[in-house]
Amino acid sequence: MKIATWNVNSIRTRQDHVLTWLKSQDIDVLCLQETKVVDESFPRSPFEELGYHLYISGQKAYNGVAIFSRQPLEWVNGGFTPILEPDQVGEFDAQKRAIAGVIDNICIVNLYIPNGSCVGSEKYEYKLEWLALLRDYLDKMLAQFPDLCVCGDFNIAPEDRDIHDPKKRETHIMSSDAEREALRAIADLGLADAFRQFTQDGGHYSWWDYRAGSFPRNRGWRIDHHYLSASLYKRAIACTIDREPRTRPKPSDHAPVILEIE
DNA sequence: ATGGCGACAGGATGTCGA
Predict the structure, then answer these.
(1) What pTM was computed for the model?
(2) Distance A1 CA to B12 C1' (A)
(3) How far is the CA of A208 from the C1' of B18 (A)?
(4) What range does the domain containing A114 cover?
(5) What's the pLDDT tens digit per position in A212-240?
(6) I need a labelling partner for A46 at 20 to 30 A (CA). Which of A160, A171, A230, A247 fits?
(7) DSSP letter for each residue of chain A
């Protein structure tokens, strides 16, 4: 089974990119982030005609997540509630950043983790609070679903080898100590980065800034991940970044990442 | 050292992204 994750930066703008890519691949489950559209306006039919079942949680202009699956999902839930109590979640489900579903006893959690803007900003504090809530949510999910795949746009580069230039990384969003520690606390629940099971060297990125020719110079960041519970980690046979869609005209700034499990 | 690009809402330009 192949489970892919892709921040498409608007599904309406990237509809043809995603269709072309799905036709060229053999993807069972595709997790999308930054769909940027309310559910009523999501372009469902072209993907349904390809044979996918769609599960979407969107909002106007910002954020938004979706799961496309060849097989129907057996259990679907958007946001942190009701896994976490409404009192604990508060307003954190207002931004549509999480959707989960189960297929073949594998629970797939699709995340669009907040960007955080600048280290020390209000949005940065929101990101850290969101990550703390995510930890509690995943703790409960792991108890319920031992075969857990947590994937999406994490907006965190876990290590210096995941950044083209780690200088000043401590003061840069996506690589500060507090962000990495929050991600480590999540991994410590029993989740591991699938990509690093297969590839040790640097230079592999999933996001490149639109500006300053970042992509042709390969000045990127690896911020899109699959974190797997122990049982699934053992079943992983490949995890690769497909740079091809990023080379096309008017691309998303992210490339898709594909996990294969047996 | 700095700025650079792109999508969205709405109808110019500000906000957000990473």
Answers:
(1) 0.97
(2) 48
(3) 9
(4) 2-261
(5) 999 999 999 999 999 999 999 999 999 99
(6) A247
(7) -EEEEEE-S-HHHHHHHHHHHHHHS--SEEEEE---S-GGGS--HHHHHTT-EEEEE--SSS--EEEEESSPPS-EEESSTTTS-HHHHTTTTSS--EEEEEETTEEEEEEE----SSTTSHHHHHHHHHHHHHHHHHHHHHHH-SSEEEEEE-----SGGGBS--TTGGGSTTS-HHHHHHHHHHHTTTEEETHHHH--SS---SEE-SSTTTTTTT-EE--EEEEEEHHHHHHEEEEEE--GGGGSSS--SB--EEEEE-
